[in-house]
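pls design
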């Protein structure tokens, strides 16, 4: 991996997750090579078409994962094999959650 990609990973990992933009999936900061990815690459790729800024996408997914883990109900049908991050990404893809621009009052 080239140095520029490592720099991108370190910058994004300050927000809790490292987004590997060049290959399209998110890994936890303590990723071990033999552990599976925490989110499916195709979900991250589709969600990144909707939320184009990787930092905003990571923050949006992180916030929704916290909500799901604290007891909020998913807005989509789920399977037991789906992780909270997968659920959050699918909700973004299906338009169930989205960014709302703040309006200055």
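designed seq:
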């Amino acid at each position: 991996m080239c140095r520029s990609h490592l720099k991108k990973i370190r910058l994004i990992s300050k927000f809790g997750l490292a987004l590997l933009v060049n290959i399209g999936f998110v890994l936890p900061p303590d990723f071990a090579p033999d552990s599976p990815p925490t989110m499916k690459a195709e979900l991250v790729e589709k969600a990144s078409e909707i939320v184009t800024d990787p930092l905003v996408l990571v923050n949006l997914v992180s916030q929704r994962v916290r909500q799901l883990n604290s007891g909020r109900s998913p807005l989509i049908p789920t399977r037991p094999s789906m992780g909270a991050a997968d659920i959050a990404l699918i909700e973004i893809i299906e338009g169930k959650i989205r960014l709302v621009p703040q309006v200055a009052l």
